[in-house]
Amino acid sequence: MRWPLRIQLLLPFAAVMLAIMVGVTLVTAQISVTNAKSRIESRLRDVAAVLQSATFPLSDAVLEQMKGLSGAQYAVTQDGQLIRSTLNGLQSEQLASLSVTDSIDDLSLAEEISIDDQEYFHAAVALQGRSQPGQVLHMFYPVDSYRKAWSAAAGPPFWIGLVGFVVLVLVAFALARTVTAPIAQLRQQVERIAAGDASPIPPRGTNDEVRDLVDAVNQLAEQLTAYDEKIRTLERTRVLGQLGAGFAHQVRNAATGCKLALDIHALHCPQAHDESMAIANQQLALITTHLQAIVNFGKEERRDFQPLDLREVVLEALPLVRPLAQHHHVNITFDSDGAFPMQGEPTLLQTVIVNLLTNAVEAIAAQPRVNPSVDGEVRVELNQEPRGIRLTVADNGPGLPQEIAATAFDPLITSKREGVGLGLTIVREVARVHHGEATYRRENGETRFEIHLSDMRND
């Protein structure tokens, strides 16, 4: 059977309050009843004392007057015979078995008697101080009047306790709700997390343990989202590694054959050593580097870095992209003075630069030209940073679509119709190999890809 937390919190409060209310009411009622009875008995003792010490005869008029003052009924017996009474139906036989005390101080309403279907408390005292010996004063106090006095004394504590009980139940219910409502939200959040939705719960305004629990669940959701993305990336990386190892061998064989054909052509053709042949050989070298990067994708391997000047690497990469840029009427500018020394692999870094420049040119070319006379612009920048060098490739193209901007560096993510989504992934991997990172952002109408490379010459 389900035992809701709200009931678990509410029942102890209600039980404790109910016990306190009943206990306080009973104790207060008992004290009130005892005090009421004591007051009645004290009043009757005073009446008995007055009648016992009085010198006037106990006539019917005197008894009626005492009845009006005290609320009790009176009767007087002489040697066991009833001589006068304020009760019309009272008989001498009914008084024969009732107890009589000799001392007024011992007088108490301890006995009950029924007279004409009416219940009375009875007390009797011998009137020893009067001139007629053997007279006994019987006093009868109505049980109904006594019960009314009891109700008047016990009623207020009972109703006060009942109101307090109801108020406590409502307060306990409200407090339980403040605890169980966030728990219900947490349960729904956990169910959403299990279903793949890691949207956070709005933070609570009160700084308490429940808020800490909400923050912990939100943090758990963020971590699970990050782990899920990492697992997806690793899975894609593993699949790419398996596929890449399969086709890289075939493509590398074809590239090797092409390189041999160019070398043979250079031996037999005196004019083969021109700029076009040099670019073709560089492109073949890049193909080999790309294939090796795919084969090593996601693998941790030792890198034998060498000293290099990143500015020279950029200058060697620019001619590989200029023909494509000229074809699409895109200007590539690189204005950087001074040296940018670092430790790294020049071929991998050249691959990064060519990838970013090619993407920038193709993005501009794919954008409808508002003014055909205005060429596209791609700018390469090198800047020193406290811990290394920042390589920036900026263009005035449209930028990445909003839906893939956050995952542009993940494998198999692309906005190109014929793309496979590996170019930017390789860029990120090369940056990581050089203990750096790759970032993307839009700023002032420009698309900016930045590669932050650490300077490891002093490591």
UniProtKB/TrEMBL annotation:
GO biological process, one term: signal transduction
MF annotations from Gene Ontology: ATP binding; protein histidine kinase activity
Xref: SMART domains: HAMP, HATPase_c
E.C. number: 2.7.13.3
CC terms in the record's Gene Ontology section: membrane
InterPro entries on file: 2C_sensor_his_kinase, HAMP_dom, HATPase_C_sf, HATPase_dom, His_kinase_dom, Sig_transdc_His_kin-like_C
Keyword presence, Transmembrane helix: yes
Annotated coiled-coil segments of the chain: 210-237
Catalyzed reactions: ATP + protein L-histidine = ADP + protein N-phospho-L-histidine
Swiss-Prot/TrEMBL keywords: ATP-binding, Coiled coil, Kinase, Membrane, Nucleotide-binding, Phosphoprotein, Transferase, Transmembrane, Transmembrane helix
Domain HAMP: 177-229
Transmembrane portions of the chain: 158-179
Pfam family, one: HAMP
Classification via SUPFAM superfamilies: ATPase domain of HSP90 chaperone/DNA topoisomerase II/histidine kinase, HAMP domain-like
Localization terms from the record: Membrane
Domain Histidine kinase: start-end pairs: 246-457
Keyword flag Nucleotide-binding: yes
Listed name of the protein: histidine kinase
